[in-house]
Amino acid sequence: MNILVLNVGSATLKFQVVVTDADRINTDRDERLIRGQIERIGGESIITIRGADGVSRKRTASLRDLRAAVDWLVGFVTSEESGTGLTSRGELHAVGHRVVHGGERFRSSVAIDSSVLHGIEETIELAPLHNPHNLRGIEAARAALGSGVPQVAVFDTAFHHTLPEHAYLYAIPYPLYRRHKVRRYGFHGTSHRSIAYRWRTLTGRDRADVRIVTLHLGNGCSACAIKGGASIDTSMGFTPLEGLVMGTRSGDIDAALLDYIAAKEGLTLPQVEALLNNQSGLLGISGLTNDMRDLLAEADEHQDRRAKLAIDIFCYRARKYVGSYLAAMGGADAIVFAGGVGENSPEIRRQICDGLQWAGLHVDPTANEALTHGREGRFSTDESPLAAWVVPTDEELLIARDTFRVIAGVEPT
Ligand code: ADP
Fold first, then answer.
1. Which stretches in the chain have pLDDT values below 50?
2. Which of 68, 145, 234, 319 is most buried, judged by most C-beta within 10 A?
3. For this chain's UniProt record, which GO biological process terms are given (predicted)?
4. Residue 8 main-chain phi, psi, to 5 deg
């Protein structure tokens, strides 16, 4: 089955075309025909395309809105120029969408019908920045391919539906949960699920034997405690603002600070929230950048004090979460790193793991240095009771596989 995977943001559309079916899933032989992204939708858009040969190309097109962008994309991936081998729109058999928020209703991936659309609309107030784009993506795909092509929603929150009450409730008046569904939802669920699945494939374990802490460290960052293959706690909360230090997000802060900062700086509460989302984290502390690669360079080459401080706070917070999740699960078998930072920075991994020797984690420096650029493997010593791994996340592949499984009525393994 040829599946178009769409991940729609405010002005960016990420896409892939994946060939998958039951046999390919079982033998890990899914095929990626093309991937890329369209940026600056609404003007002169920049399109980056990477074909099956791994070669990246850039081009531009005037795409006035998302509908035009998806229509262009569907035309392109089925043209000879794309190199996919697809020759007509009819050869795209289904569309898989990343949908950020599934609220309490969506506990797994679902085929999109009018009731599901309504359900996603209902969660807009929980994810006002994301779900509207996802809905527009679904409408655009329907316009481009027709209503006969099945579409599937894969939710960022769904993997965390197994959180127990004591992990998802905040210690605030209970009626706020009943009345307004104020609770921890958690995000990055597709990523944590993808990492956990790959790790258990690599280590030959059954799902029930998976007891790990996954760290998705990219621009957005989150940690997840996975026990018996299920998410039992995660660092992002009601919104993706809570938890770890991120590129521009603060992660955990004292809630009383909102009012205090608003009063001192003459800001409204929404302005303070925007400050915590867009001007904080690595960018806020360093005053330089949200890009970890650049921060590491500044800290190393120019000994920039605040760049170093930002890195230290980032790693310290991550280590605290690992420690708390080890306590929550009564220990774990591995810490698994993923995301742009987690997959590419031996230095950050070393700093996070340094100080976890008490928990039985001993890093092999040579193995750690070797794991960059999409390589996967273990970087703790053979004797280390708690292992450390890098397992690159692959959300798009999981979205494609879920799309196939939902349409074919096959349960995930
Ligand atoms: P997103 O959350 O937007 O998907 P990514 O997972 O791509 O982001 O991660 C982006 C982050 O990964 C950036 O901070 C970038 O600097 C960082 N990164 C990428 N390569 C490296 C590297 N070699 N060393 C350190 N950080 C890196």
1. none
2. 234
3. acetate metabolic process; acetyl-CoA biosynthetic process
4. -100, 125
Fold adopted by 205-390: Nucleotidyltransferase; domain 5 (3.30.420)
Which atom of ligand 1 is nearest the CA belonging to 290? Answer: 14
Hey, whose CA ends up nearest to atom 19 of ligand 1? 340
Amino acid at 290: N
User: Would the CATH topology of 2-155 be identical to that of 205-390?
Assistant: yes
Could you tell me the pTM of the whole model? 0.95
Report CA(293)–ligand 1 centroid distance (Å).
Answer: 7
Q: Is the distance from CB of 211 to CB of 190 less than 8 angstroms?
A: no
Ligand 1 site: residues with CB under 6 angstroms? 218-220, 247, 291-293, 296, 339-341, 344-345
Q: Which pLDDT tens digit goes with each residue over 55-74?
A: 899 999 999 999 999 999 99
User: In CATH, what is the architecture of 2-155?
Assistant: 2-Layer Sandwich (3.30)
**101 Cα: distance to centroid of ligand 1 (angstroms):** 23
* H helices present in 304-345, as ranges: 305-329, 339-344
Looking at residue 357, the DSSP 8-state letter turns out to be G
Q: How many residues does the chain have?
A: 413
pLDDT digits (tens, 9 = 90+) for 115-145: 999 999 999 988 888 889 999 999 999 999 9
Q: Which residue has the tokens 């120029």?
A: 81
Q: b vs e for 31-50, b when ≥16 Cβ sit within 10 Å of the residue's Cβ?
A: ebbbbbbbeebeeebbbebe
